[in-house]
Amino acid sequence: MTTLDPKPTDTPSDGGTVTPSRSTGTNATRVIGIAAAVAMAWLVLFALVISPADVNQGESVRLLYIHVPTIWVAYLSFVVTAVASGIYLFTKKHSLGWDRLAGASAEFGVAFVGLTLIVGSLWGRLTWGVFWQWDARLTTTALLFVAYIGYLAVRRLGGSHQQRAKRSAVVGLLSVLLIPLVHWSVVIWRSLHQTASIANTEGDIKMDGTMLFTLFVGVVAFSLLYVWLVMHRTRAMAMEDMLEDRGLDVALAERRAEGAGR
Amino acid sequence: MSAAAPSEPPAASAVASDGSGPVVELRDVVATLGNFPALSGTTMHVDQGEIVLLRGPNGAGKTTLLRLCAGLVPVVRGTATILGHDLTVDRERVRPHVGLLGHQNGLYADLTVGENVRFWGSTVGATTIEIESAMERMGVADRLESVPVSKLSAGQKRRTALAALVARRARLWLLDEPHAGLDQRARDELDEILTQASQSGATVLVASHELDRAESLATRTIDLIAGHAGSESDR
Amino acid sequence: MSTWRVGWLIARKDLRIEWRSRVITNQVLPFAFVTMVIFGIALDANTDVLELVAPGLVWLATMFSLLLLVQRAFSVEADDGALDAMRVAGVDARGIFLGKAIGLVVQLLVLEVLLLCAAMVLYGETIRLDGVVLLVTTMVSATCGLAAVGTLYGGLAAGSKGRETLLPLLTLPAVAPVLIGATRAVESALGTGVAELSEGWQWVSLLTVFAVVFGVGGALAFGPLIDE
Lengths: 262, 235, 228
Hints:
heterotrimer, A: mainly alpha, Four Helix Bundle (Hemerythrin (Met), subunit A), 7 helices, C: mainly alpha, 9 helices
């Protein structure tokens, strides 16, 4: 199997010299990148200046404008990983483009979950007085963080591109099944052994219009950032794969020459 | 047909999955171990009933070639048709008819000879009679049958593995250094078994260092150099 | 050759090997036992606390042992190229998955019973008669889930570099729901702390769903995972 994909410019099988673009940027990514930057600036303005402090939480409520969008993007990226894995696995073509999308998405998913956990525990320290609560959502998120680090480890196992794609697609699909199972178990667990207090504090956030709008801006800004990052990363991965194939052409030529020299 | 540099004109290859078509048909096959192109564009052709000897120095790609034919190593470029099925598409339909005896025997050390052969036979639905006769042919039936594999000599292990192969009724035999570790008597027996197998319609591909012995057995020899088939000689 | 028949052949073969080699009795059981002892030491041999957390400790020890058993189950296949031989022979991958998983279920159940006995001796745990049905159901459903996850990721890691570290990284987050569910269900069955018997059954449904998801998913995914 050759690994032609998605553009027809790569991998000439006899070691030809087609030079693909060295940049991962296109007009689309530039537009999205600029939009993301503008949205981020807007978010900073709203989150730090325009929106008011919360009645109960004070200034620490501003952390939520990062916390909520990052966790949204993290879950979005895991779903994208699962969908892309599914398309890779269940279409006849087994296109590596989908595999790279799944991988790129999972990488940023892990990064955003990490960010969520850090910001969340800072917020928890300010609001609840503790960094960590064994709350259902927190516990689920922490377990997912580790599960997707495992997924990324599977991607690095080595072997051919198709092999990597197949393995990681299976793990990507199973990991997303884990989300409801882990969440379900943790929810019953915590509801049976109610430690009270936290759930209430959280419910107490009275969002006024500006705050809700700021959250909305945050979600838009981080979503745009995610799309921009994934587009670049997917292209970079395509180039890495291409480079490895190019390496194969060189190695092949060397090996054939070795045979002829005898 | 043969075996030269890559990019030969595509000959017609209408191949029946049984009957007398080519059993192995490789065209510019590239296969990799990690990033190393162990096969660098192999083209070769083996007909039914042949016993073909693969020669070549260490690292020439003999083992990879055999593993590729068994569907264990993926075809990276080129096409490989085994028993009339394209390996990249229909590997599942090829495998049950292929037997590979590589550097490893595929035996469970804690089980006895009989248990091993019976296990491998029954995974493909061989009957008790077939399994018993396979063990008898390889001389591991009576005294050795209840001995754990961990207590066997290298030659006895090899014979047990061959018995498992016979019990599986493979149509294409891929043998990697099958004579290694066998005593004189066992080698003669092995040669006889291979000849018998080819007479009864099986095709045999042998990679061997022991050229004298294997050459006397083989109907054809293919030299493998740096991952592709070089010269070839009929016998 | 049906999937079930292949599964039965492989499970029987695996159990026979384990029976002969005694790796379980000589290594895994002592390991699980010493884990229970060091839990006791870590919790300062406080009998009140130990009795309370005993169900969780039993399952934790089971999961650590699961990692050992899975590695053992696949090194048996990889040592002499038997897994390759099965692939060449075209043995049904779902059958292989099923067989390996059944073999693990049997070994794990034996281990769990012994660990429960150890918890009774070491941590002063008691079993109440009306909780026995819940206890057994929980053990069976939880064990099926554990074995399915273990077999799936064990097959994935088999033969790759760094499998010793990859297996726990993949397995432990995946079996977290089993740890939670099985621990709470056993607490209910034993009447540890304030747990009610009726609470246990909703956990059993979680454990069953988990076992089915990973059993079916694993059987379907196993072929592509071990191939190539």
